């Protein structure tokens, strides 16, 4: 299955700790924050504060927009600037301090007992082809410019903050071919 998701398809939800809102881009199943195997979201963070806890889950967080933030993960501080990512346990106590104003982040939360995950952000100056093999592939255009992707011989136009979900279980070939210049494409891969 190949599903093209528009910004209007995303679901606005309250954070688990109630301190803000997220846009849920895609998830494995379910409607609440207690029952899912994986979940991809994007959130605007306008104030420093504590992260929600997700028992038994792993997180990958990336800064999409803004100056960045410092994450204090149980006493160890990590600075994340725009375009950088960090992986950490969802059950750790995490406090985020904004560096210089609000940020927008991209967040993958997944069950590491069921899935292995990888997240990369691609920005290249020349045309490339990338081959990916995974059970689920999530492509997210973080660039303000449109990107044309060639997937299994089919061209797809991906506008700003639009995404494509590829599910290998629905007989979609898991080879991803991208023609053209990467302008800020986030690729999330999930493997069982």
How would you describe this structure to a colleague?
This protein has 192 residues and is mainly β. Helix content is 0%, strand content 54%. The chain has strands at residues 2-5, 11-14, 21-27, 38-45, 49-50, 58-65, 68-73, 76-81, 85-89, 94-98, 103-110, 116-123, 136-141, 147-151, 154-158, 163-167, 176-177, 183-191. The strands form four sheets. It has a six-stranded antiparallel sheet, with no helix packed on it. The protein has a five-stranded antiparallel sheet with strand order 1-16-13-18-12, with no helix packed on it. It has a four-stranded antiparallel sheet with strand order 5-10-7-8, with no helix packed on it. Strand 7 and strand 8 (76-81) form a beta hairpin. The radius of gyration is 16 Å and the shape is globular. InterPro entries: RmlC-like_jellyroll, RmlC_Cupin_sf, Uncharacterised_HutD/Ves. This is Histidine uptake and utilization operon protein HutD.
Tally of strands: 18
Structural class: mainly beta
The description of the largest β-sheet is: 6 strands, antiparallel
End-to-end CA span: 17 Å
Strand content: over 45%
What coarse outline follows from CA principal-axis ratios? globular
**H/E topology pattern:** EEEEEEEEEEEEEEEEEE
> What is the number of helical segments per DSSP (H or I, 4+ residues)?
0
Average pLDDT reading: 86
Question: What does the radius of gyration come to?
Answer: 16 Å
Order the strands across the largest sheet as they lie in space.
2-3-4-11-6-9
Helix coverage percent: under 10%
Q: Which blocks of ≥5 consecutive residues have pLDDT under 50? A: 170-175
Organism: Acinetobacter soli NIPH 2899
InterPro entries: RmlC-like_jellyroll (IPR014710), RmlC_Cupin_sf (IPR011051), Uncharacterised_HutD/Ves (IPR010282)
Protein name: Histidine uptake and utilization operon protein HutD
């Amino acid at each position: 299955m190949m599903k093209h998701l528009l910004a209007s398809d995303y679901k606005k939800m309250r954070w688990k700790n109630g301190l803000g809102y997220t846009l849920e881009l895609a998830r494995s199943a379910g409607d609440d924050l207690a029952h899912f195997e994986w979940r991809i979201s994007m959130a605007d963070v306008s104030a420093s504060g504590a992260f929600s806890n997700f028992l038994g889950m792993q997180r990958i967080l990336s800064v999409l927009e803004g100056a960045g933030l410092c994450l204090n993960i149980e006493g160890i501080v990590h600075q994340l600037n725009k375009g950088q990512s960090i992986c950490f346990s969802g059950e750790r106590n995490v406090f985020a301090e904004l560096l210089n104003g609000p940020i927008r982040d991209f967040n993958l939360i997944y069950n590491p007992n069921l899935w292995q995950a990888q997240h990369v952000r691609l920005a290249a100056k020349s045309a490339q082809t990338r081959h990916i093999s995974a059970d689920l592939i999530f492509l997210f255009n973080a660039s303000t410019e449109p990107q044309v992707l060639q997937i299994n011989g089919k061209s797809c136009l991906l506008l700003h903050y639009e995404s494509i979900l590829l599910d290998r279980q629905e007989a979609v070939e898991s080879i991803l071919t991208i023609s053209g210049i990467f302008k800020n494409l986030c690729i999330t891969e999930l493997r069982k």
